[in-house]
Specification:
single chain, three-stranded antiparallel β-sheet, 14 helices
C-alpha cells in the first residue's frame, strides 16, 4: 500500500522497478566471491594440515594445489548461487534458501541412523532420546509461534490527490515481527566467532597465543557461548535498525498523509522506536536461546553433534523459516488461481510480508 503510493509520486524509486535490487545483487555476487576466496583458502589449508601423508594430493606442489582448490571451491559456490537464482526466477520461493534447506534435510537420515546406532550400542539411553525428541517438538512449535508473531501498528490515511487520481481514506497497519531480523543475527555472530577460530586453529600450533585463543574459543566452551549470545543480541538490534528505520517509516507515513491513532505526528519516530525496542529485546533473547540449544543438548545428554546441531541454532531456524515461507507462497499462488489452500484454517505469512 505504502510502496504503491510512493511509486505513484516518485516513479524513479518505485520498488517494482528493480533497479536498486539489481545493484544490490551485483554487490552480493562480488562479496560472495571475496568471501569464497577467503573461506576456500582456509578450508584448503585445513585439508592440507590433516592430509600431509597423502602424497598424490601434494605431488604437484603446495602452491598449485592451493590455487586449484580455491578456484574449484569458488566456482562451485558461484554455480550453486546461479542455480539458486534460477530457482527464484522460475520456481517458488527463495532459491538460495531452498538449497540450504535441502542441504540440511539431506543430513537428517545419516544423523538419525547414527543416533539409532548409538542407542543400539547402549551409548545413549532410550529414555533420554525420547525426552530430547519431545523437547525438539516443543522448540519447533515455539519457533513457528515466534516466526509468525507480530505487532500491528494501525495507520490511517486521509483522502489525497496524486496526479489525476484520488486515493480514498484507508486504514492499514504496519506489521512489526517479534524477530524482524530472522536468522541473520545468528549467521553474523557465528561467522565473526568462526573466522578468528579458523585462523587460530590453522596456525595456532606455531604461535602460542593463537593456540590459547583457539582453546578459549572452543565451540562448547563458556566464553564462546557468552560471546555468541551477546553478538546475537547486538546484531538483532543492529539489523533491525538498518532494515526497519523508524525515522524513514515515520517520514513515509507523514508524506502520504497517514497518522497513527493517539500519537502526534512529530512523535511517530519516538513511538515506533519504543515499540521496536520492546519487541527486539525478547525476540533477540529467544533467538539466542534457540542458538545455544545444540550446546545444551550436547552438554546434558552427550548427543552427537550431527543430531544436536539439527535440533537448534541456525539449522532449525532455516528449516522452519523456509518451510513457512514456501508454504505461504504456494498458498498465495493457489488462492490467486482460485484453488483451495494447503490448510483449511489459519493463514500462513511469509517472512518477507
Amino acid at each position: 500500500m505504502l510502496g504503491k503510493e510512493i511509486g505513484a509520486e516518485f516513479p524513479d524509486i518505485d520498488p517494482r522497478n528493480g533497479g536498486g535490487r539489481k545493484k544490490i545483487q551485483g554487490y552480493q555476487r562480488i562479496g560472495t566471491v571475496a568471501v569464497c576466496l577467503i573461506q576456500s583458502f582456509a578450508v584448503t589449508q585445513y585439508a592440507q594440515s590433516i592430509s600431509r601423508s597423502v602424497d598424490n594430493l601434494l605431488s604437484m606442489g603446495m602452491v598449485p594445489f592451493t590455487i586449484i582448490a580455491i578456484l574449484t571451491v569458488t566456482t562451485g559456490t558461484m554455480f550453486l548461487m546461479w542455480i539458486g537464482e534460477q530457482i527464484t526466477k522460475r520456481g517458488i520461493g527463495n532459491g538460495i534458501s531452498l538449497l540450504i534447506f535441502a542441504g540440511i534435510v539431506a543430513r537428517l537420515p545419516q544423523a538419525i541412523w547414527e543416533l539409532g546406532g548409538r542407542v543400539r550400542n547402549n551409548d545413549l539411553n532410550l529414555v533420554q532420546v525420547i525426552v530430547v525428541f519431545v523437547i525438539f517438538v516443543a522448540v519447533v512449535a515455539l519457533v513457528v509461534f515466534e516466526q509468525q508473531g507480530q505487532r500491528k501498528i494501525q495507520v490511517n490515511y486521509a483522502k489525497r490527490v496524486v496526479g489525476r487520481k484520488m486515493y480514498g481514506a484507508q486504514n492499514t497497519y504496519i506489521p512489526f515481527k517479534i524477530n524482524p531480523s530472522g536468522v541473520i543475527p545468528v549467521i553474523f555472530a557465528s561467522s565473526i566467532l568462526t573466522f578468528p577460530l579458523q585462523i587460530a586453529s590453522t596456525i595456532g600450533g606455531n604461535v602460542a597465543w593463537l593456540a590459547a585463543v583457539s582453546r578459549a574459543l572452543s565451540p562448547n566452551g563458556a566464553l564462546y557461548t557468552i560471546l555468541y549470545v551477546l553478538l546475537i543480541i547486538f546484531f538483532a538490534y543492529f539489523y533491525t535498525q538498518v532494515s526497519l528505520n523508524p525515522i524513514e517509516i515515520a517520514k513515509n507515513i507523514r508524506e502520504n498523509g497517514g497518522s497513527i491513532p493517539g500519537i502526534r505526528s512529530e512523535r511517530i519516530e519516538e513511538y515506533l522506536t519504543k515499540i521496536l525496542n520492546r519487541i527486539v529485546l525478547p525476540g533477540s533473547l529467544y533467538l539466542a536461546l534457540i542458538a545455544v540449544i545444540p550446546t545444551i543438548i550436547q552438554g546434558l545428554f552427550h548427543f552427537p553433534s550431527s543430531i544436536s546441531y539439527l535440533m537448534g541454532g541456525t539449522s532449525l531456524l532455516i528449516l522452519v523459516g523456509v518451510d513457512l515461507d514456501t508454504m505461504s507462497q504456494v498458498e498465495g499462488l493457489l488462492k490467486m488461481h482460485h484453488h483451495e489452500g494447503l490448510t483449511k484454517r489459519g493463514r500462513l505469512r511469509g517472512r518477507n510480508l
